[in-house]
Amino acid sequence: MNKIIDGKYYAQELNTSLKNSIEQLNKKRRPKLVIIQIGNNFASNKYIKNKLKACENVGIIGELKKYSEDIKQSELVKQIEILNSDLTIDGIIVQLPLPSHINEKEITDIVSPSKDADGFSPITLGNVMLNKSNIYPATPFGIVKLLDWKKINLIGENVVIIGRSNIVGKPLANMLINRSATVTICNTKTKNLKDICKKADILISAAGSPNLVTKDFVNNNMTVIDVGANFKDGKYCGDVKFEEVLKIVKYITPVPGGVGPMTIACLLENTFNLYKQKEN
Amino acid sequence: MNKIIDGKYYAQELNTSLKNSIEQLNKKRRPKLVIIQIGNNFASNKYIKNKLKACENVGIIGELKKYSEDIKQSELVKQIEILNSDLTIDGIIVQLPLPSHINEKEITDIVSPSKDADGFSPITLGNVMLNKSNIYPATPFGIVKLLDWKKINLIGENVVIIGRSNIVGKPLANMLINRSATVTICNTKTKNLKDICKKADILISAAGSPNLVTKDFVNNNMTVIDVGANFKDGKYCGDVKFEEVLKIVKYITPVPGGVGPMTIACLLENTFNLYKQKEN
Question: Is the domain of A167 the same as that of A69?
């Protein structure tokens, strides 16, 4: 049995399926995603390029709105309001990080919930908690899809999540609670992290800390999901010491090629779901 | 040292302090809370009476809007919209349960977030998750206040919550995650519930199951918060076998007189916070 959960492969399958759905729209207008970028952050440029390319591959219209580094908060708000009321736009995402003079919370709050392709708005997150959403933050959405794809049981299973960010740890915890898992959320203050992790059926590391998860954190029956996206010694890597952990566990996602590709696929799926909500 | 956390006493302290704040408003209008009741549920009548009395005690105007059991969804929506736009009303709560022909989610969603005294709306819950709210579901709000009152440390502590409801377990988990606790949320499918609980520093039972938490669930250093509000053999009781657990643990809330009085005090505090947001 192959232990490695091939997120790249599954993301491509999802993209192909989405592409077919969009082709079948026939004469109707195509879904459209707008990405807002402020300034010219190097990493952002790369992420945005990947997102636009992914849109193109499945037939979603991707458009970049790039604003100057010194745009005023009030002007940015005005621009987003124009995009909110544009009926040809289904999804709007604000590429983070924003310059320090911009109030991030106000900006992400102002994106219309009906266009919240990133799933970061309070109303989307509240509905995620209430199990009443079909839009989810893209990374947790991708993780749950990977677990379902591999038919990994969640009901009654002990899931340990390392990390409590607004875009991964917390929404993911709520989603897995709603799926009847027993969920433990750890953070940098957690005592005996190693011992807590070692007892998990599913361990999800979203700590952003290279080599955090070693062989001492895992067991033979465990599924390990590595959400880390770190650079160490010039190399892209996750949170898990992959080679040594691979030998022990049942399933593991690699970095790259695990959670990463799923995140973009789920962003596209959110956009399509927002499109369908609008068209129905 | 007294082991029993006297929620009744602390709630009265909070109410006295709130009463003083409201008296100091002087000429300004007083805060106002409207309770919507559909039909004539026996338990609801009792809860509403308590809430109205609590309002009166602190100087909040409490008003009951009672509608017939067979009110139509559309008519109820219209009534709530009228209350939403009434500038003299600060808080609106919909007393649950609603009759089965009413769509509860639509009704609670329609209450304006700026008047969401119960803290049940998606946007409030999303902001609770994001740690950006000053309104919280009243029961979790009361629990956190009790822990703070007793100066019980949360940072890095192992908190176990039994129960994952929308009004207690899930919002409470998010609030304690934001306070840097290591939080485990259990449900009826959890394996080895007893063992998981036994290792907690703080155990919070919101299962609604009398006598669930026995001496085998606890340890000497533990704080036990009993959120149960059950009737067994005609007697009001919590989830915890109080007498036997009391002997072992460090702190415990009684039922009645623990979490219950705090819930109403926090509903009043939410109403006052909504009032202040409007007046400022």
Answer: no
Q: Which residue, of B55, B77, B112, is where some domain finishes?
A: B112
Residues of B in contact with A184 (CB under 8 A): 182-184
Shared domain check, B48 and B158: no
Please give the Cα distance from A132 to A113 (Å, whole number).
Answer: 14
Domain assignment present for A38? yes
Range of the domain at B201: 138-260
Residues B31-46, mean pLDDT to the nearest whole number: 95
What mean pLDDT is reported for chain B? 96
A246 and A176 assigned to the same domain: yes
Of B112, B128, B150, the last residue of a domain is B112
Identify whether the C-beta of residue A59 lies closer than 8 Å to the C-beta of residue A22. yes
A146 shares its domain with A246 = yes
Clarify whether residues B142 and B255 are in a common domain: yes
Task: Identify the CATH number of the domain in which residue A159 sits.
Answer: 3.40.50.720
**Count of the separate structural domains present in chain A:** 2
- Verify whether residue A277 is a known catalytic residue: no
Burial tier of B207 (Cβ tally within 10 Å: 0-12, 13-18, 19+) = buried
Assess B187–A contact: CB distance below 8 Å, yes or no: yes
Q: What is the pLDDT of residue A280?
A: 77
Specify whether B90 is located in the same domain as B42. Answer: yes
In chain A (280 residues long), the average pLDDT of successive 10-residue segments reads 94 98 89 97 93 97 97 97 97 95 93 96 97 97 98 98 97 98 98 97 98 98 97 94 98 97 97 93
Which residues, 6 or more positions from A2, have their beta carbon under 8 angstroms from its beta carbon?
none
- What is the reported pLDDT for B280? 77
Backbone dihedral angles phi then psi of residue A143, each to the nearest 5 degrees: -65, -45
Longest dimension (CA), chain B: 58
Tokens of B139: 């029961």
Q: Would residue B20 count as lying in a domain? A: no
Write the ipTM. 0.96
Note whether residue B21 is domain-resident: no
CA angle B7, B8, B9 (to 5 degrees): 90
Q: What is the pLDDT of residues B112-144, one digit of tens each?
A: 999 999 999 999 999 999 999 999 999 999 999
| H or E, element range at A205 | strand A202-205
pLDDT per residue over B143-159, tens digit each? 999 999 999 999 999 99
Interchain contact A168–B (C-beta under 8 A): no
Angle between helices B169-178 and A169-178 (to 10 degrees): 160
pLDDT digits 0-9 by tens, B187-246: 999 999 999 999 999 999 999 999 999 999 999 999 999 999 999 998 999 999 999 999
Residues of chain B with Cβ-Cβ distance to A169 below 8 Å are: 177
| CATH number of domain containing A44 | 3.40.50.10860
Which residues of chain B lie closer than 8 angstroms to A166, CB-CB?
129-130
User: In 3D, which of B215, B209, B198, B189 has the Cα closest to residue B255?
Assistant: B209
In a domain? residue B3: no
Gap between the Cα atoms of A146 and A133, Å rounded: 19
**B123, B156, B196 ranked by CB distance to A123: nearest:** B123
